[in-house]
């Protein structure tokens, strides 16, 4: 599932290509996503201009020149493509027709969704109102982190909790904790202040670098028919089970365990 850097890469692509474009019409090819696409979207957004495209955690928000906004979640396989002419593809769900281009949302596994809201209500919708701070923002700080040190969970599970911090997922959490030299199975109650500083620095550095490199392509992440995700070449632990630790070299190998149903990769020698 795309994490913050992948969703931000999509946002930047969309911002470059459809901001200030008037929506001439919308066609729903297949409404069946995680939540069915409502018919009202076809006429409530007709002739409205896309004024802003925002990201909140792993969600995209399209704000329009009228009273409406759209919330997108890419799910596991959702992606946008931009074409001058429309040619149907299997698993196309919705087409936004602009003057000289068409934006199509395709989702094979149908775990993504598209929801219509009033602009004044979208930030209070159930999907985003309880999200934690953005990890690249100043609110994700040492003092904020310290409020959660009594949490009875592991450090990796805390970082994965979207109510604690928005946008982090499985891949980046393994990488963040490796860079911080902290075992993912450590209880939050054992984390010291100097380790919080390491984690926050690692979060901001890894996410910033991943955005610059277009995210991490592991399976299906695509932006307008072009696979991106050059950060996969920078992964230090994720997917490297049994291979030598890039920090310890031949002294130890990367191990894998399952935490809360998700794969975690780590080095038992240099992460403590």
If you had to describe this structure to a student in words, what would you say it looks like?
With 272 residues, the protein is α+β, with helices and mostly antiparallel strands. The chain folds into 2 domains: 4-122, MutM-like, N-terminal (N-terminal domain of MutM-like DNA repair proteins, Alpha-Beta Barrel), CATH 3.20.190; 142-266, Helicase, Ruva Protein, domain 3. It is 24% helix and 24% strand. It has 7 helices and 14 strands. It has helices at 4-18, 41-44, 119-122, 142-146, 155-160, 170-180, 193-212; strands at residues 25-28, 50-56, 59-64, 68-73, 79-83, 92-97, 102-106, 113-118, 222-223, 226-227, 244-245, 249-253, 255-259, 262-266. The protein has a 4-stranded antiparallel beta sheet. A 4-stranded antiparallel beta sheet has the order 2-3-4-8. A hairpin with a 2-residue loop joins strand 13 and strand 14 (262-266). Helix 1 packs parallel to helix 7 (193-212) and helix 6 crosses helix 7 (193-212). The longest helix has 20 residues, at 193-212. It is elongated, with a radius of gyration of 20 Å. Mean pLDDT is 92; it is low at 217-222.
């Amino acid at each position: 599932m795309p994490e913050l850097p992948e969703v931000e890469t999509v946002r930047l692509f969309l911002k470059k290509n459809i901001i200030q474009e008037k929506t001439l019409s919308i066609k729903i090819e297949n409404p069946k996503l995680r939540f069915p696409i409502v018919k009202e979207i076809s006429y409530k957004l007709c002739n409205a201009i896309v004024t802003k495209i925002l990201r909140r955690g792993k969600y995209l928000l399209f704000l329009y020149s009228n009273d409406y906004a759209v919330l997108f979640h890419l799910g596991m396989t959702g992606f946008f493509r931009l074409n001058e002419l429309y040619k149907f593809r299997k698993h196309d769900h919705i087409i936004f027709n602009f003057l000289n281009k068409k934006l199509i949302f395709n989702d094979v596994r149908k775990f993504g969704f598209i929801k219509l809201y009033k602009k004044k209500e979208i930030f209070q919708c159930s999907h985003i109102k309880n999200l934690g701070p953005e990890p690249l923002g100043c609110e994700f700080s040492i003092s904020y982190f310290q409020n959660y040190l009594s949490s009875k969970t592991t450090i990796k599970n805390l970082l994965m909790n979207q109510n604690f911090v928005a946008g982090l997922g499985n891949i980046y959490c393994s990488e963040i904790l490796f860079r911080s030299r902290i075992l993912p199975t450590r209880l939050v109650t054992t984390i010291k202040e100097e380790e919080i500083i390491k984690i926050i620095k690692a979060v901001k550095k890894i996410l910033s670098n991943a955005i610059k490199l277009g995210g991490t392509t592991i399976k299906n992440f695509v932006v307008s028919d072009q696979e991106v995700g050059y950060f996969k070449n920078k992964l230090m632990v994720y997917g490297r089970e049994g291979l030598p630790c890039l920090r310890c070299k031949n002294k130890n190998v990367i191990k894998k365990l399952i935490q809360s149903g998700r794969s975690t990769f780590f080095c038992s020698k240099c992460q403590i």
